[in-house]
Amino acid sequence: MTSITLPAREADVLLETDVVVCGGGPAGLGAALAAARTGASVVLLERYGFLGGNFTAAAVGTVCGLYVRSAPGSFDYAIGGVARAFVEELVARGKAIGPYPFKETAVLLYVPWAAKRLADHLVIEGPDSGNITLLLHALVSEVVVDPETGAVDGVVIASKQGPKVVRGRVVVDATGDADVAVAAGVPWIMGGPGERQFGSMQFFMQNVDIAAAMTAGLGALSEAIAEHGGHLTRDGGAVIPTFRGGEVIGAMIRLTRDGAPLDATDLFDLTYGELEGRRRAEEAEVFLKEYMPGFADAFLADTATQQGVRETRHIVGRYTLTGDEVRAQATFEDAVAVCAWPQEYHVSGRSTDYVFLPDGATYSIPFRVLLPSAGPPNLLVAGRCISADHHALASCRVMAPCMALGEAAGTAAALAVLDARETSSDRIVLGSVDPGAVRTELVARGAILP
Ligand SMILES: Cc1cc2nc3c(=O)[nH]c(=O)nc-3n(C[C@H](O)[C@H](O)[C@H](O)COP(=O)(O)OP(=O)(O)OC[C@H]3O[C@@H](n4cnc5c(N)ncnc54)[C@H](O)[C@@H]3O)c2cc1C
Asked: What is the 3-state secondary structure (H, E, C) of the chain?
């Protein structure tokens, strides 16, 4: 590939704040709400016209990782704090149901539209919204690093009016793909085939006879695929009711190119994924109408706003959580979140493999996985791009733990800013934040920690 040198440009400083949160998915929402609640001013930047990330844009349809099964048929919350408050509000609005048993665990079913509106409400009118400024259609494209201190001074937004800068004392990268950390020179990795999850395109079917479909159950879907669906990309999957009359979300497409997962940071692969996802959704529509009970009169209403991306870049952090530690139910002194979700692999062939923890078991996630091993001292990462190997991420990438990790990052960011204010310090070094203080604040706000 040839390259050219871009000319230097001036950019207006649009806003100055304590904490800049880049990305408004589960992790970014958790981070923004927690930082605001802890007393920092926050600017939340989201590239789309709405919040939620995969929660809404990819219409994943269930919240995973909220619960731990204490015994067959009996579930407790594994995760509290912002995630629990968020889903309980959805339930109170009649837009979610959980715990809903799924394999050896349970999920929460929700209406994506309702999650989108609840996120609006919390950020704009919620109890902590006074500290939050939201910018939508704000794609973070670059970072400004102070050459003397090596700290991030701000981020650059690609806007219709040209580049704009938002300055902040701390930056939280919750872009899912570690866009900000990579731009800031933080070391990162991305697994090759077999070490990177496949993405999927979810789709909405309407006019479904829900009672017939649910009576037949997911077993009927797998059997139909085994008998007639050799051309489909997965050997199972799910049709998930959204609570809107006759509507389900189809979760049965695996996006592959020549047998390999796409690189969802590559423009060509992203374009291919959207086109292929829509083609595969039509293929699934034809299949479901013919072979799945309840779908004879159904139709494909739409695909999700975007293909769902499970895994791209992870930062290399101060600590890297491993799959062995997940299975060993590791605990850490600086734990800032716990997780009970199984390792869920969308990797090879057409199947999806699960490795479950025993009933009642969780593992913990240390603060250090949010801290880059090198690069700006005032940058934190949260969500699916934390420092975890592929096998640990197979579990902790789901939405409830991502929200909890965001909450931890936002809390730590705000505590660091408040401390710097108190000591009149110019520099913020997140590696010096006391994880004990973060844990205390999280527990006071309802987090469940070991
Ligand atoms: C098909 C599929 C099905 C899944 N099913 C489930 C499920 O049923 N239950 C579950 O709990 N989890 C599920 N997951 C996993 C889960 O959705 C994700 O791992 C989780 O959403 C990750 O949260 P996040 O905030 O780290 O990232 P994301 O959800 O990816 O959010 C990142 C946010 O940052 C924004 N952003 C990205 N780059 C920039 C930028 N440069 N500037 C500004 N904004 C930016 C994005 O628009 C997005 O809003 C599924 C994932 C996929 C792909």
From this structure: CCCCCCCCCCCEEEEEEEEEEECCCHHHHHHHHHHHHHCCCEEEECCCCCCCHHHCCCCCCEECCCEEEEECCEEEECCCHHHHHHHHHHHHCCCEEEEEEECCEEEEEECHHHHHHHHHHHHHCCCCHHHEEEECCCEEEEEEECCCCCCEEEEEEEECCEEEEEEEEEEEECCCCCHHHHHCCCCEECCCCCCCCCEECCEEEECCCHHHHHHHHHHHHHHHHHHHCCCCCCCCCEEEECCCCCCEEEECCCEEECCEECCCCCHHHHHHHHHHHHHHHHHHHHHHHHHCCCCCCCEEEEECCCCECCCCCEECECCCECHHHHHCCCCCCCEEEEECCCEEECCCCCCCEEECCCCCCCEEEEHHHHCECCCCCCEEECCCCCCECHHHHHHHCCHHHHHHHHHHHHHHHHHHHHHHHHCCCCCCCHHHCCHHHHHHHHHHCCCCCC
The domain segmentation of the chain, as residue ranges, is 13-193+312-444, 203-303
Is 140's C-beta closer than 6 angstroms to any atom of ligand 1? yes
C-beta 174 within 6 A of ligand 1: yes
**Model confidence pLDDT, tens digit, residues 327-373:** 999 999 999 999 999 999 998 788 899 999 999 999 999 999 999 99
pLDDT in tens, 291-302: 999 999 999 999
Asked if residue 107 has pLDDT above 90, the reply is yes
Does the CB atom of residue 344 touch ligand 1 within 6 A?
A: no
Level-2 CATH architecture, domain 13-193+312-444: 3-Layer(bba) Sandwich (3.50)
pLDDT in tens, 253-295: 999 999 999 999 999 999 999 999 999 999 999 999 999 999 9
List the residue whose alpha carbon is closest to atom 22 of ligand 1: 384
pTM over 0.90, yes/no? yes
Atom of ligand 1 nearest to the CA of 24: 49
